[in-house]
Design a protein that fits this description.
The complex is a heterotrimer.
Chain A (H helix, E strand, L loop, with lengths): L11 E5 L9 H5 L5 E3 L11 E3 L13 H5 L5 E7 L1
Antiparallel strand pairs in A: 1-4, 2-3
Chain B lengths: L8 E4 H11 L4 E4 L7 H12 L7 E4 L3 H12 L5 E5 L1 H6 L1 H9 L5 E6 L15 H5 L10 E3 L4 H18 L3 E6 H5 L1 E4 L26 E2 L6 H21 L3 E4 L6 E4 L3 H15 L4 E6 L1 E3 L3 H9 L3 E6 L5 H9 L5 E5 L8 H15 L1
Chain C lengths: L5 E5 L17 H15 L6 E5 L14 E4 L5 H11 L4 E7 H7 L1 H9 L5 E6 L29 H4 L5 H6 L4 E8 L3 E5 L2 E5 L1 H18 L3 E7 L3 H4 L3 H15 L3 E5 L7
Parallel strand pairs in C: 2-3, 2-4, 4-5, 5-9, 6-9
Antiparallel strand pairs in C: 6-10, 7-8
The chains are: A alpha+beta, B alpha/beta, C alpha/beta.
Chain lengths: 83, 361, 266
């Protein structure tokens, strides 16, 4: 569960359970803002788990939760958004 | 909660079994027609409409034997008293379901009204499913408790015994009848039955409210765990072997030859014993009532008394092997078999015993 | 674990256990698992839900869903579900089955559960192949598709054409809800190149919820969900998505095939 690029007051946050991630990258390609990418770490299963950055390659995380729904492994365990 | 009347009724074996199951608190019946067992679902269908048995909630005719046994398993998983009946070809089809049910330790009742095999065979009585019933039939390591009725009266009382055993030990139970006993009409009484209560709350699927989920599955990918699971099942089977053997002895005390027979053949053999005894021949009969657990100890005892055995079955020699196993190689075990729907007559059995007496002398 | 001033938009589901799944990376079996768990939570039925597990990729689902489970034999889940539901009509009973389990060995059980209008919910994961056993031909394998038992491509003259289960069930007048949806993310051309949409996935999510609702209304509900199998199709994950969105979807058009209670319109 990491936040590689932090934004002081993020609109939304995504929690990743790294041990569940199988690096399928569906969340990476479906995230509209580019907030997710594979890390260089390895989890116990030998995958590079995905990591979340509030400021992504295309913008800031809006809490749309697309990553949550597309993740086949419930590795994206929680999406939080400012009320 | 008794059948329509407490007085003697005159019924076919199959009908008596159906009423016996209702008296034993049957909750659901899953049907597939096959001769010579169809009177069982037909009777149960008739009684379903009457609403006389408040616990009897489902009668459903399935589209195949496979569908029927699969429904039995799902219903049994709720802790309900459920049953299905068939004949030999259908019994073959149900083996997968029985194996699953035994592996999941589910209580349920299967009835096989045997007919001639192999294949489609014919509709005559046979006991050719003995191996299938007692040695597995389905894949894997398990045992079925097998009851062999030999009269319409036993067809009426065995369902209650079967359900009690099934729930006490969490194991499927088989009533192994035959075409003759299924179709035979005799007077029968239905005793008032106290429904036995068994606590299923530790395993039944009822919705995981205020408890952890119950998993009724037969898959165990961890070999060590699966070994332990089956070992525990076989501890259970040992307890059943110690406590639930049932058999009947007739005139075995001073017998020199003991006939071993089950089901309808035992009726014929009993008549032969009476006729032989009237002529001074020292012959007796041991009738296994549970085919599994098998009365090995009783047979061993008789063998130790120096008796020889004549196994009479409606097959080519199936229970014969269990008798040989029980008494050992140094004891004479002879065999008289009929199959294909044929029955031995009393005279056939008498003739065989006489031949044995002659060779023994 | 919520941060100050934030609310949980999508969170942990009680109907899911903590066990990581054995599904292959990118497999929509996992996606469906979350959709079902979410529907169970939304409808608040976890404590009276029983899953009848089938034999296929989902055979270990009893480790993933936090409810009672019954492990049926291959193809028999609808029958065991019917037996269970018949004794306990107050319980919500559902199955997850593969295309082999439901459309080959279990076709009779599926058809008759539908024919009788048995009030259970069946989810068929259609990935056009026998996944768990290593990639053999399934009833839904496409013409010309290479599998381990059709190494030269499926020959429809020998094996028949792919079986359309939703179309088959559409004609069964005991069924109350027959829907084909897709769990696969869709690639769209966007201004910055490829954009992936989840419109189909969200429709699948609604279909899953409908399928449980229909059971509570006393009807038989069936949802066929197109999925991928990148391992056995021998394609990278993204290529598998493309294959599903083109070839598989062309053979098996999405849509409402039967909706007696009109749940789709609500």
């Amino acid at each position: 569960m990491t936040e590689a690029v932090a934004v002081p007051t993020p609109r939304a946050l995504v929690h990743v359970l790294e041990e569940r991630c199988k690096a399928c990258e569906i969340c990476v390609i479906t995230c509209p803002q580019g907030n997710l990418k594979l890390s260089t770490r390895l989890n116990r299963a030998g995958f590079h788990p995905v990591e979340f950055a509030s400021r992504g390659t295309r913008g800031e995380c809006t809490g749309c939760a697309i990553c949550y729904w597309v993740c086949p492994d419930a590795a994206i365990s929680e999406v939080l958004a400012r009320k | 909660m008794s059948s329509p009347a407490k007085e003697q009724r005159y019924l076919k074996g199959n009908e008596a079994l159906a009423y016996g199951a209702l008296d034993a608190g049957l909750n659901a019946y899953y049907a597939y027609p096959i001769t010579p067992s169809s009177e069982i679902p037909e009777t149960l269908a008739k009684e379903f409409e009457t609403g006389k048995y408040p616990g009897y909630k489902v009668f459903l005719q399935a589209a195949s034997e496979l569908e029927a046994i699969s429904m039995v398993l799902g219903a049994a998983a709720t802790g309900s008293r459920v049953m299905t009946a068939t004949s030999s070809p259908g019994f073959s089809l149900k083996q997968e379901g029985i194996s699953y049910g035994a592996g999941m330790e589910l209580p349920f009742l299967v009835v096989d009204i045997c007919r001639a095999g192999p294949g489609l065979g014919n509709l005559g009585p046979e006991q050719g499913d003995y191996f299938q019933a007692t040695k597995g039939g389905g894949h894997g390591n398990y045992r079925l408790i097998v009851l062999a009725p030999n009269s319409v009266q036993e067809m009426a009382t065995f369902p209650k015994l079967a359900f009690d055993l099934a729930f006490r030990y969490r194991n499927p139970v088989l009533i192994l009848g035959d075409a003759f006993t299924g179709q035979l009409k005799e007077g029968v009484e239905f005793p008032q039955l106290e429904p036995a209560r068994f606590d299923v709350s530790s395993w039944a699927l009822t919705g995981a409210r205020d408890r952890p989920p119950h998993l009724l599955v037969s898959l165990e990918l961890d070999y060590a765990k699966h070994y332990k699971h089956v070992a525990a099942m076989y501890e259970k089977y040992k307890r059943i072997e110690e406590a639930e053997v049932r058999f009947e002895e007739f005139e075995t005390g001073d017998a020199e030859v003991v006939i071993v027979a089950f089901g309808i053949v035992a009726r014929i053999a009993r008549g032969a014993v009476n006729k032989l005894r009237a002529r001074g021949v020292k012959v007796g009969l041991l009738r296994p009532i549970t085919l599994w657990p098998f009365p090995s100890t009783a047979l061993k005892k008789l063998a130790a008394d120096g008796k020889r055995f004549l196994v009479v079955e409606l097959n080519t020699g199936q229970m014969l092997e269990d008798v040989r196993l029980a008494v050992g190689n140094d004891v004479a075990v002879d065999f008289l078999g009929r199959w294909g729907g044929l029955l031995p007559s009393e005279a056939d059995i008498e003739g065989m015993v006489n031949r044995l007496e002659v060779t023994a002398a | 674990m919520s941060e100050a001033g934030m609310e949980v938009k999508a969170g942990r589901l009680e109907a899911l256990t903590d066990a990581p799944t054995h599904y292959c990376a990118g497999c929509e079996h996992g996606t469906l698992t979350r959709l079902i768990a979410s529907a169970i939570e939304t409808l608040n039925i976890r404590e009276r839900t029983v899953m009848v597990d089938s034999v296929g990729c989902s055979v270990l689902a009893y480790n993933y869903f936090n409810c009672d489970h019954f492990g049926a034999a291959h193809g028999r889940a609808p029958a065991s579900a019917a037996g269970l539901k018949g004794m306990r009509p107050d319980l919500t009973v559902f199955t997850i089955q593969g295309d082999g389990d439901a459309a080959a060995i279990g076709l009779l059980e599926l058809l008759y559960a539908a024919k009788r209008g048995t009030p259970i919910t069946i989810f068929l994961v259609n990935n056009g192949i026998y996944g768990m056993t290593g990639g053999q031909m399934a009833p839904t394998t496409l013409e010309g598709q290479v599998t381990t038992t059709t190494p030269h491509g499926r020959d429809v003259k020998l094996t028949g054409t792919p079986l359309d289960v939703s179309k088959l069930l559409a004609g069964i007048d005991g069924a109350s809800y027959v829907k084909r949806a897709s769990l696969v993310v869709t690639e769209l051309a966007g201004p910055r190149g490829s954009v992936y949409a989840i419109k189909n996935l969200m429709d699948a999510k609604r279909s899953v919820e409908n399928a449980f609702k229909v059971q509570s209304m006393g009807g038989f509900a069936f949802v066929e969900l197109l999925s991928t199998c990148s391992i056995n199709w021998k394609m990278p994950i993204l290529d598998a998505k493309r294959f599903a969105n083109t070839q598989l979807m062309k053979q098996f058009p999405l849509g409402v095939y039967r909706d007696v209670f009109g749940v789709e319109k609500k």
